[in-house]
Design a protein that fits this description.
single chain, alpha/beta, eight-stranded mixed beta sheet, two-stranded parallel sheet, 10 strands, globular
Length: 379
């Protein structure tokens, strides 16, 4: 199947075309040997020779082939929005694959932290994982561009820049690391959760805040005068209980899902960092799949990402209502208050220019300026 034919078949899935365009031409040179339970040497991605797949199938001499298994890990609880959609994803893929592919979800962090699961995927000990951009940044520092403070004004702007400028380049770079990245989705904008509302940078000065295990997150807290304490999100409630940190940040969905509100009842809607995530798959396992299963998975992954985008909006509203009913008090930063935070955190861009890549950062900022100019004229 040619690239043109592949694109024609998936043309009604815009996000999928972005991923295909980003991934398929990549040649990664010398590759590490990755163990895989279904390794088929010589079969290379969607561009692999159809004849090779046919030869492998004929070698089974008519015997029924055992289903390929994709174990997919995530720290998200099963009852969360992501968990519920993942269960639907599991059913849809298995139904479409008609017994040839089985999904085994490992939710709630039962396989370890995001960093541990990502390493398992890289080493071939796990087929796939859904992890945040913060975790992926340990493998691919450029990923931190997604979490530069106040990079995106709102969700629509974030989606525009991610789909058209950021994602294609990051997916290419992941392929060079023997990771197949697909289905970029979102958890929403991060907010402050603490024992009081955070209305100005001065409110953070000298305080210890739980931070994502990410350099750009740590730099964000330091720029505001806070003391970051890196830790997995699952450890934050216990840290609140012990008094080892005075606050944290997460999306509204994350605050509810990980029970961050049980100890801290004040949420400041600051929208300071956009939390993106991605399904990452071991490249050796991915390349072992027949073309039709690869195409089917790409379509389902895109549906999952699109479904997550739609569900996130409604779920965030529902989560905010649930938090309010539990006694949480909200404050949304005013435009003037937000400007003070933006001014304080601007230095983070210069600090990370060489990390994320000067050219990528310039292209993103240029595309953002053009996007805002178009939208301002249209108002």
């Amino acid at each position: 199947m040619t690239m043109h034919e592949m694109m024609m078949r998936v043309g009604r899935f815009p996000a999928l075309v972005v991923v295909l365009a980003a991934c398929l031409p990549v040649q990664t040179g010398v590759r590490r040997q990755v163990s895989s339970p279904v390794c088929l040497p010589g079969v290379r991605g969607l561009g692999a020779c159809v004849g090779s797949c046919a030869a492998a199938a004929s070698a089974e001499t008519g015997a029924k082939k055992k289903a390929v298994v994709l174990r997919l890990g995530s720290v998200a609880p099963a009852a969360s929005t992501w968990g519920r959609l993942a269960l639907e994803y599991e059913k849809d893929i298995e139904k479409t694959a008609k017994g040839r592919l089985e999904i085994e979800l490992r939710l709630g962090g039962v396989l370890g932290t995001e960093s541990e699961m990502l390493q398992m995927v890289l080493d071939g000990e796990l087929e796939g994982a859904a992890v945040t951009s913060s975790a992926i940044a340990k493998l691919l520092p450029e990923m931190q561009i997604l979490e530069l403070p106040f990079l995106f004004e709102d969700t629509e702007e974030a989606r525009y820049l991610i789909d058209r400028v950021i994602a294609p380049r990051l997916v290419r770079r992941l392929a060079e690391k023997d990771i197949f990245g697909t289905a970029i989705f979102e958890n929403g904008f991060r907010c402050f959760v603490a024992g009081r509302h955070i209305r100005s940078p001065e409110d953070l000065k000298g305080l210890k805040f739980a931070s994502e295990e990410s350099d750009v997150h740590a730099a964000f807290w330091r720029s505001l005068g806070a003391k970051p304490v890196p830790m997995p999100v699952a450890d934050v409630p216990a840290a609140f209980g012990k008094g080892s940190v005075g606050g944290a940040d997460n999306s509204i969905l994350g605050i509810l899902a990980f029970n961050l509100h049980t100890k801290k009842k004040y949420i400041t809607v600051s929208n300071h960092i956009f939390q993106a995530a991605m399904i990452v798959i071991n490249n050796g396992w991915w390349e072992s799949l027949p073309q039709d299963l690869q195409l089917m998975m790409l379509k389902q992954n895109t549906r999952l990402a699109e479904g997550m985008r739609e569900a996130t909006i409604k779920a965030a509203d529902d989560a905010a209502n649930a938090l309010e009913k539990s006694g949480v008090r909200f404050h949304t930063l005013t435009a003037k208050e937000k400007e003070a935070f933006i001014a304080k955190t601007n230095a983070v861009y210069g600090e990370f220019e060489s990390v994320v890549g000067k050219r990528l950062l310039e292209d993103v900022l240029k595309a953002r300026a053009e996007y805002r100019a178009r939208n301002t004229r249209g108002q």
